[in-house]
Amino acid sequence: PALFMENARKGSIVSRANSIGSTSASSVPNTDDEDSDYHQEPYKESYKDRRRRAHTQAEQKRRDAIKKGYNDLQAIVPTCEQQDFSMGSQKLSKAIVLQKTIDYIQFLHKEKKKQEEEVAILRKDVMALKIMKVNYEQIVKAHQDNPNEGKDQVSDEVKFNVFQGIMDSLFQSFNTSISVTNFQELSACVFSWIEEHCKPQTLRDIVIGVLHQLKSQLY
C-alpha cells in the first residue's frame, strides 16, 4: 500500500506538471502565424479602379474649367454685371450669361464698324488737307520767286469777277442739291453738298475754269 500511494503521488505530480506546461504553451503567442499575417502583401488597386479614379478627376477638372469660364464671362461682359430687376437677387443662369455675351459681342462688332467708317472719313479729310497744304505752299513759293509780282496786281473788278465766277458755279450745284423743305433736311443736304462738291480737287477745277474764262475775255 505504501508503494501504491507513492506511485499515485508521483503520477499526480506529473499530471499537474503536464497540465501546467500545456497551459503555458497555450498562452505563448504563435509567432509563425503572426509573421505570416504581418507580412501579407498590400492591397493592389485594380486597373478598373484606377481608370474610374482618373475619369472622376478629369470630369472634375472639366467642370472646374467650365465654371471658371462662366465666371470670367460674367466679370468681362458689362451687361452681366447689370442686375435685372425682374430676376431680383437670383444668380444668372448659364444660358443668360451666354446670351448676354453674344449680344455684347454683336454690339462690339457694330461699334467697330462705325469706328472704321469714321476713320475712313477722317482719312479723306486728312488727304484733302494735305492737298490744300501743297497748293498753298506752291502759291507761297510762287510769290517768293516773283517779289516784283505786286507791281502788276489785277484790279478789284477782275478779282470780283473771279469770285463771282466761282460762287456762280458753286451756287448751281448748291441749288440743285439742297432741299429747303425743313431745317433738318437743309442741314443734312448742306453737309452732303460740302462733301460732294467742295472737295479741294473740285474747287481747284472750278477756279482754273473761271480763270481761263476770264483770261479769254481780257485778252
Automatic annotation (TrEMBL):
InterPro entries annotated for this entry? Answer: bHLH_dom (IPR011598), HLH_DNA-bd_sf (IPR036638), Max-like/E-box_TFs (IPR052207)
What is one Pfam family matched by this protein?
A: HLH
Q: Where is the composition biased (Basic and acidic residues)?
A: 37-48, 56-65
Signal peptide start and end residues: none
Q: Where in the cell is it found?
A: Cytoplasm; Nucleus
Q: Where does this protein have coiled-coil stretches?
A: 105-132
Biased composition (Polar residues) is annotated at 15-30
Please give one Gene Ontology molecular function term for this protein: protein dimerization activity
Quote a single Gene Ontology cellular component term: cytoplasm
An example GO biological process term is:
positive regulation of transcription by RNA polymerase II
The chain positions of domain BHLH read 50-108
Gene3D superfamilies named among the record's database cross-references: Helix-loop-helix DNA-binding domain
Q: Please give the superkingdom of this protein's source.
A: Eukaryota
Subunit structure of this chain's protein: Efficient DNA binding requires dimerization with another bHLH protein. Binds DNA as a heterodimer with MAD1, MAD4, MNT, WBSCR14 and MLXIP. Can also bind DNA as a homodimer.
What function is annotated for this protein? Transcription regulator. Forms a sequence-specific DNA-binding protein complex with MAD1, MAD4, MNT, WBSCR14 and MLXIP which recognizes the core sequence 5'-CACGTG-3'. The TCFL4-MAD1, TCFL4-MAD4, TCFL4-WBSCR14 complexes are transcriptional repressors. Plays a role in transcriptional activation of glycolytic target genes. Involved in glucose-responsive gene regulation.
Official protein name in the record: Max-like protein X
Taxonomic path: Eukaryota, Metazoa, Chordata, Craniata, Vertebrata
